[in-house]
Amino acid sequence: MAAAGSCEKCREDQVSAPCCRWGLLRRSRRLRRSADDGEEDRISGLPDDVLRLFLVGLGCARGAAHTGLVSRRWRNLWTGLPELTFHNTAPDQIEAALAQVTRTSMFLLDIDVARHHPLEPPAVTSLLRSAARLAPAELKAVFSGATQYRSNPSYHVDVELPCFDRTTSISITMFIPAVNLVMPPAGDFLKLESLSLRSCDVSVDSLLPRCPRLRKLCIQRTRILSITGHSPSLEELDVTTHGVLLRVDIEAPLLKKLSIYAVVGISNEFSISYSAPKLEELSWMCGHNSKSGVGLGIWRMSSLTLETRKLLGDKQLADDKESTCLQPQHCPRVDTAHYKDATRSFRQHMSQLPVANFSILELDILTRGHAYGGVVLDLLMICSTVQSLKMKLREVGPRVEECLVDCTCDHPNNWRSQTVPMTDLKEVEIQGFKGEAQEIDMLKLIFRSAIMLERVTIEFYSKVSPRDNRYMETLGILKAHPSVESTVFLRKRVLKFEGMVID
User: Fold this and answer.
1) What SS3 class is residue 137?
2) Structure confidence by residue, pLDDT tens digits, 358-381
3) What is the distance between the alpha carbons of residues 365 and 24, in angstroms, rounded to a whole number?
4) Where are the domains of the chain?
5) What is the separation, in whole angstroms, between the first and last Cα of the chain?
6) I need a labelling partner for 373 at 20 to 30 A (CA). Which of 1, 6, 254, 268 fits?
7) H or E stretch including 125?
């Protein structure tokens, strides 16, 4: 733990960190004189357990070790600390320090290897094994150094997670590309209750059987393709994967919180099955690339978010929210067969979600000059139980000034004259409203179809003027329905309509 041998960057960080400065400077003459004169050292006379409380308060294993420079009485006290935190320290020095620790049952072991210390997977495995020997109740480990494998992203290496049979909480972050975290050949994590893994791949179905008491599992920035969670004890599951998700299979009788984020998206062969009768909170986020087959006409779903905060059972929801981001990919010619197939695929995708009904539908639409009324109508027909509709209209990227004559964005072209059943719809909120023809037609369709409508909120686009005809036409539609409470936002000015206008 001596400063000698430390890398230059570590020494710079140690000097700037108050907890690490112990022992970096020469021992003062005053300190040596007081020791030689035999002055009474009342602090060093305290019991070991009391002195260790002081050392724990430093928050740094290096600083605690360097207190041995103060007095011989303090020299090896740090080896018996219940909590050890290593930062600003080279990996080989951490390994050497762990070998000196005499305490075999700790409260906390916190290891943070800086980015400027590249680590090969065998070195990571060795550090984890040294940590397992100390049996900490809580383990925090961050390995930030990149390896030689960064230049070859298709290369995969294995890092073994040793058996921490007496540890209750583990948090491991590996900023090392292409790492598979593998289970040890023998042994179980008998006391583990919370496990957090970041930036490494792991087989969930091989992990859970080894953790009989696991209650909370969080896996972030992974590339796993299948989530299989069968656990009698699991209460929270949070997974974020950058791989194309193929399958979700969950069987957890005590599961209360479930969060799945498929950043890239799901496969066309995606399947989901789950049994979680006590599930209370659900969050589902799904991204889609431009090649995704999930869409309606030219529209493709770039992201999907589903949330609920109320009690739900298998395929049943009392209340939930579904957010969808739609954007056009191209401006092709009309292909009715393709449009019907796309509609069917979108319905199939919605039916695969672990819910039966949606009560809140939020749409984030990147219009880019295209008509979107038809796709919104189709979504409302698919999500027929929606009670609250929120639409955010945005222009992102180069605007398409004018669609091709036969662009499918407005398909089917008779949607403006339709009346569809919206018997549950009570609230509508539209942001970025410009008063264009399709928006006016959509507003009329909603008033015509939603017989239980109670509130409408419209926030106009910032460039719309109170003198614009489209603004006046919108106000006319709202005034024509006095039974509906309507609110209009225009350049921070608020108008409310409840049978009368309030400035």
Assistant:
1) strand
2) 788 888 887 777 777 877 887 788
3) 58
4) 288-310+345-398+408-489
5) 72
6) 268
7) helix 121-134
